[in-house]
Amino acid sequence: MPTLGSLATGLRTVMNSRRSEVYMIELDRDDRPLSATSRGDAGTGVVPGGGAPSDTRRKFQYYPDSITDTKQVNYSTKEVPGGSLPLYQWVNSGERTISFTAVFTTDVDHYAFRSLDTFLTASGGEFELAAKAQAAAERLRAVGVNERNAYIPGALAWLRRFMLPRYGEQSEVGVPFTEPPRKLYLVFPGTNIHWSGGDGGFSANSALLCIMTQCDVTYEALFPSGNPRIVTVQLSFAEVPQKGGSVRFPRVGSLDTISDALYTYQPSDRTSF
Fold it and tell me: Alpha-carbon distance 117 to 127, whole Å?
């Protein structure tokens, strides 16, 4: 699969043996993986290819070139008169943040089958535009090139949803409510990235239970129609310990056993201290 480094060579098709794909799974208001037909709000129902997908997991177009995993720890310093160092009192293990740059590209303008004048004067607004993009995506899928020709506005809509609230009305009591942005599982198959966050939380099997905290979009290149051609998105996620009304704080737990079994390199100098 091509990565960001290959884009510098001019968006040429690159053969790569990578089999892993980074993807996200949206959770519902009860923190359960949801289907597109049970989002709990009045969605548009616009689904590429027609119909509704069985669930809302979607992969990124490219595997990130790099992933940054930061973990904070908070200590309170206790100053000792005359001491050459302060004393440190552990307060808590702070936020864990996962960051990477997502890249979306297309070599084909999804609006290319319409003249620019027609595009600018068309009626029907964004839903007509989405339908036309769906038709173009189907044509690309039919010839086997849809994987490297993402409809980028749709990808950005997918991501930004995790930064925005939902508003509605509780039918049982008839009062307005505000629902926070949805949690998600961020999945990096094969990395076992959950190990370095601690044992005992809700993250497992290279899937991290997260909230999205950053989604900064840069439009690198556009077609004459305005359709984005290359877009980079700076993404950050915070791992969370609460799910479905329960709280699980990650701890060392089985990580002692994992490190003893899987990282056994010993120094040649066995001098005792």
Answer: 18
List Cα–Cα distances, 125 to 77, 114, 138, 200, in angstroms.
59, 15, 21, 48
d(CA 34, CA 49): 20
Q: Which segments of the chain are extended strands (E)?
A: 23-26, 58-59, 68-71, 74-78, 87-92, 96-105, 166-170, 175-179, 184-187, 207-222, 228-239, 242-243, 246-247
Which amino acid appears at position 79 of this protein?
E
What is the rounded average pLDDT for all residues in the chain? Answer: 82
Length of the chain: 273
Q: Specify burial of residue 142 (Cβ count, 10 A radius: 0-12, 13-18, 19+).
A: exposed
pLDDT tens profile 185-223: 999 999 999 999 999 999 999 999 999 999 999 999 999
Q: How far apart are CA 205 and CA 199, in angstroms?
A: 11
Q: The whole model's pTM is what?
A: 0.80
Region for 113 from its dihedrals, namely left if φ exceeds 0, alpha if ψ lies in -120 to 50, beta otherwise: alpha
Sign of CA dihedral 94, 95, 96, 97: negative
Q: Is residue 112 classed as helix, strand or coil in its secondary structure?
A: coil
| Residue 152, both tokens | 């980028």
Handedness of CA 139, 144, 148, 154 (dihedral sign): positive
How far is residue 78's CA from residue 138's CA, in Å, rounded to a whole number? 64
Distance CA 211, CA 225 (A): 34
Structure tokens at 263: 């990282």
